[in-house]
Amino acid sequence: MESSQPSPPNELITVYLVFKQDQNSVKELESLFWKITDPDSDKYQQWLTRKEINKILKPHSKCYSLIKKWCEKQPFKKVIRLKNIVDRQQKFTDDNIDSLQQQLESLVVITPEFVIDYYKIPNVKKIGLPRNDVSQSSIQFLGEYYDEKDLQKYSKAVNIRYRPLASKHILGGINNQSNPGSEAVLDVEQMSGINPLAENWFINYESGVNPDGDGENFYTTILTLNQLDHLPQVLSISYGDPEIGL
């Protein structure tokens, strides 16, 4: 193993400092989280923007001042800036769409309507949305793709509004619709069924992070999301790796 060597004196090095957040601010954000996700709360689905969240969690100005003073006493040439960073689903075809719709009506299956009724989720088809810019996203890994035509036929089968995904809302990789995966199809369609009025996003990574092609890109996903000015308000994630390996 080679020992580390001093950096050249003119090399620019970026150092990230992680500030512990004020516990009262964390409690305030957690309290808001439960209110926003509680159908009985007057703040239900009043989602916060990244700017609003940062405002709650932003460290006190004294914290920045103390850290900056400490840095200036170190052998650093210059402190430039401190920044606050806070079972398989059956595929629909033209031939079986009518028979599948009959099955949905006659069999006990998990449909969006069942999920909405069972968990007492507000039915947006009846009451609408509290605001127009509600969005939701499915995050997939290892080449899991969804099928837009299948989504359209699924929407017809369960009697929901069909909303195609905009190309600008497909992030992280391609969506090979000729080879859809059951996880992606299930997530996108169930998500669309539970809230058919929301804007849908799809985030996908084609290959894994390990040499054998396995392993979900959680780190890359987090970096990608952190660079977005506008995040989907709901993220649905499917993965199969042991959490100890994340």
Automatic annotation (TrEMBL):
Single GO molecular function: tripeptidyl-peptidase activity
Transmembrane segments: none
Matches recorded under InterPro entries: Peptidase_S8/S53_dom_sf (IPR036852), S53_propep (IPR015366), Tripeptidyl-peptidase_I (IPR050819)
UniProt-listed Gene3D superfamilies: Peptidase S8/S53 domain (3.40.50.200)
Residue ranges of domain Peptidase S53 activation in the record: 5-78
Any GO BP: proteolysis
Pfam families hit by this protein: Pro-kuma_activ
PANTHER family in the cross-refs: PROTEASE S8 TRIPEPTIDYL PEPTIDASE I CLN2, TRIPEPTIDYL-PEPTIDASE 1
Protein name per Swiss-Prot or TrEMBL: Peptidase S53 activation domain-containing protein
Species name: Didymodactylos carnosus
Species lineage: Eukaryota, Metazoa, Spiralia, Gnathifera, Rotifera
